[in-house]
TrEMBL record:
It comes from the Eukaryota. The lineage of its organism: Eukaryota, Metazoa, Ecdysozoa, Arthropoda, Hexapoda. It is a multi-pass membrane protein. This is Innexin. Keywords: Cell junction, Cell membrane, Gap junction, Ion channel, Ion transport, Membrane, Transmembrane, Transmembrane helix, Transport. Belongs to the pannexin family. The keyword Membrane applies. GO terms for cellular component: gap junction; plasma membrane. It comes from Drosophila pseudoobscura. Its main location: other.
Amino acid sequence: SYLWKVWEGHRMAQLCCEVAGAIILEDTYRTRLQMLTKYFRAKFSSIHCCYAIKYTFCEMLNLLISILNFWLMDVVFNGFWHKYIHALAAIPVYDWQLWNMMSSRVFPKVAKCEMFVYGPSGSPNVLDILCVLPLNIL
């Protein structure tokens, strides 16, 4: 994000400053649109080519960072994606039992909870109970 902001230099914001507004006059819109078309039709191919190369480089860098995040998450969380890929593979073949079993391993729907209650004498009692996690049941 930082690299693209430095390279881009708010060029798109400057080019579209009055065209992207919610309420603009028709004359202003037409003149800005004509200026934009003249700008893009002009022979600035080296500028546009450099702009496109920088944009493509930033997108490739984003892809590399995403892959690195997947790999790091897999290492840190002890094979997270290796377990979850089996759950995703069950969806196209409509094997909902396998989907439920594999996704429950990755995203549990039930967990052990401790509930603190106070008895009639005022002393705390700890109860071990099963908690249903409603956000994971879709």
